[in-house]
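Hey forum,

I'm writing up a methods section and want to include a predicted complex as supplementary material. The small molecule is zinc ion. I've pasted the protein sequence and the SMILES. Can someone with a working setup run it? I'll credit the forum in the acknowledgements.
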Amino acid sequence: MDKPGKLIPVPTAETAEFWAGCRQGELRLQLCAACNKYQFPPQSFCRHCSSAELSWVAASGQGRVLSCTVVHWSPNPAYAAEVPYSLALIELDEGPRMLTNIVGVPPSEVRTGMQVAVVFEQCSPEITLPKFKPR
Ligand SMILES: [Zn+2]
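Reply by user p_vandermeer:
Happy to help. Structure tokens for the complex are below, copy them as they are.
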């Protein structure tokens, strides 16, 4: 029986531009022309006002940790070599929230309120994951 591999995101029509940005080292968000709010994850209409006037813009890549935990064990053996690792909910300076990993610091040292900046980690030719490190 094959062991389960890592869970690699599959781009969709709505997320392809986000993943293209990550491959180029740019964190992209959708910006609504009608209400001037940013959104993530991507979707075909604005979650604030339902407008379809969305454009893609480069985000600052900076934010802060809202909540965090340390993962000590994974049911998926593909992640066994990576525990313990930090799993965190961050709020980007532009407003949207993102579930991600905090890297570059021991997981036990990640704190809520910590200021973080995006870093990119390639995991396949198509997918580069945005992760965050303290700034
Ligand atoms: Zn809107």
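Some notes you might quote in the supplement: Residues 32, 34-35, 37, 46, 48-49, 51 surround zinc ion (CB under 6 Å). Residues 64 and 115 are 4 Å apart (CA to CA).
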